Amino acid sequence: MPDAIFADPRLARVYDAFDGDRYDLPAYLAIADELGADRVLDLGCGTGCLAILLAASGRTVVGVDPAAASLEIAKSKDGAARVTWIHGDATTLPAFGADLVVMTGNVAQVFRTDDEWTRTLQGIHTALGPGGHLVFETRRPGTWANWTADTTPVVLDIPGIGAVEQLREVTDVHLPFVSFRFTYRFRADDTVITSDSTIRFRGHDEVESSLLANGYRVLDTREAADRPGREFVFVAQRTA
Asked: Does residue 238 register a pLDDT over 90?
């Protein structure tokens, strides 16, 4: 089940506002250009920002996400009609013959067990065409420590919704797993909604080994455009 931050309809409506400027998106568009990718699958597409940007460049794009509420937001945006939207996850991906599969937003970290991660890589492998590429980001181990110091609530005045307060707090650390909670207060009616998440931090060598074991080779590991020094961006290619 997706976390409430993505699956609750009311939280999905405010997700983009709190996500802020997506400085990572032009970098992923540039990677698609670099790899000559015409058919792109955005896994964990969320509210569709990257999928729509890729489709606007003339590519054939499929956006896949397990959170129906997030997909509804994506479908409501300008340019959404150019994208094929699928409610599902990596285990239900079509044999799309993709030139490129992308996972932004550190989606790779929601797969907590080795089995979940393996099934995700295998599902992506099925969706990729021969020689296709997988590009994704994942936070470097230890970067979660910054979250414990950043506990100041953020309040945004969102058009059509009003003032919404967001608070993030770390609730448990049992490495490689870190749990945290987002609390949202909608001031218009004083409704409070919480969303609990647990993610897994994997080191560079662990990620690379998992890719090699599932039919990929790592071509490059890059810095994230929006968070230099805090994330790995893996560029891998299907080899089998």
From this structure: yes
